[in-house]
Amino acid sequence: MYGECGARSECWEVFNSMAEHDVVSWNSIMGVMANSQAPISESVEVFSNMMRSGLTPNEVTFVNLLAALSPLSVLELGKQVHAVVLKHGAIEDKAVDNALVSCYAKSGDMDSCEQLFSEMSGRRDAVSWNSLISGYIYNGHLHEALDCVWLMMHSDQMMDCCTFSIVLNACASVAALERGMEMHAFGIRSQLESDVVVESALVDMYSKCGRIDYASKVFNSMSQKNEFSWNSMISGYARHGLGRKALDIFEEMQQSGANPDNVTFVSVLSACSHAGLVDRGLDYFEMMEDGGILPQIEHYSCVIDLLGRAGKLTKIREYIKRIPMKPNALIWRTVLVACQQSNDSERIDLGREASRMLLELEPQNPVNYVLASNFYAATGRWEDTVKARAAIEGAAVKKEAGRSWVTLGDGVHTFIAGDRSHPNTKEIYEKLSVLIQKIRNAGYVPMTEFALYDLEEENKEELLSYHSEKLAVAFVLTRSSSGVPIRIMKNLRVCGDCHMAFRYISQVIGRQIILRDSIRFHHFEDGNCSCGDYW
DNA sequence: CAATACACCG
Questions:
Q1: Which of A29, A110, A334, A358 has the fewest Cβ atoms nearer than 10 Å?
Q2: Nucleotide closest in space to A99 (CA vs C1')
């Protein structure tokens, strides 16, 4: 009973007070440990004690033990448990097999997963399929996961709510709109779309795939909402720069009687930040503290982000002092970005401190070197930029190349900066040069401070003009002249120059451009962006 | 035994 209520210490109290333990009592306490994410070593210890007491483990024992390993499975441990399972002849049990599939998946051993799964033919259930599918996704094999979904659909196993939630989540994380819509259609056909988890996953998927309109449609049609649904919708609007709508939903959430949690406040603060509503954000931060929700380091990071957008560096210093814990890499990254974008004279010193702390705390993260070098480049200190660049080489960290992609009828087209590998390269570059001439006539001036190397002015302009997102937009224009919005995805943050250029482009071509970068969505229309140049 | 939200993410 205490286990079901999540009262871990009470469970142990009762367990320890028992004169003797049978298999059921051991199983129960192991179940409690798995649910409360106790350290793996403790669960293994309890299992050993049980074995030592001379009892024989049963199916439930193994399922609970494997569940304890599951959160961050260790392959060696999983294999050992597997061996013990085989010794006890428990392998014919569906739940134990499924737990093993899941355990191998989390350890990254998909070969063993597939092996086990194929041996289970005849006694597979939805959980077996879902474990395999989520295993593929967990290990980054989206393609195999989708193949598996297809196989599942054509097997005699029906997909269930979990299957949809798993796959929709994967579509959301790679912004695969078309796949997500297919899943939505299957869901409707299977009459699973009215499950609150599936619907929340749909809201999130549509918002992350750029269709905030569909996201809000699904959200409004929901008959029941839980905290995930509210949080998905709020963060969805925030991500699209629709801060006021996000705050409207937040108000509605409070009126509906749902309880905003710490995730809600991260979303709300980030909504204020994305919309440039600095004072309102600070009010909400106070409201959270008054409402008895203890601010986490993420909330402080949001507040610093908020102040950074308003260029209030002195206030940032104040808030850093107020953080009750030691500022982590997230905080310093946010501070560094704030300094990069500010015009305040304080930015040099504060930015220096932030970049020093950051590289000390996380020397292995390539993103930090890029941020440091961008900061120095933006402040015109080329010697330091060169040093930061050299440090990337020295630290042997691999930075991800900037990539943009678009999905047209004939598939996905990907571009990197200066890319000449596309079969239509010639037309794309011609189109781009015409486009740049047009926007220059409209008043665009290349912002060469965003070219990262210390080059002659002219070369910088050339480097900027071949950024991947500019190539992508030129490519779309070689293909279609209709009025539908142009949708571009980018893996990194959009640079200031591309952002400015896109504002002009939306104006001269009279089309809406929706650009998703690593942070959020930008809706460009008539020379303006939904982020209001806060991003 | 499988599932949904945040955070400049991995």
A1: A110
A2: B1
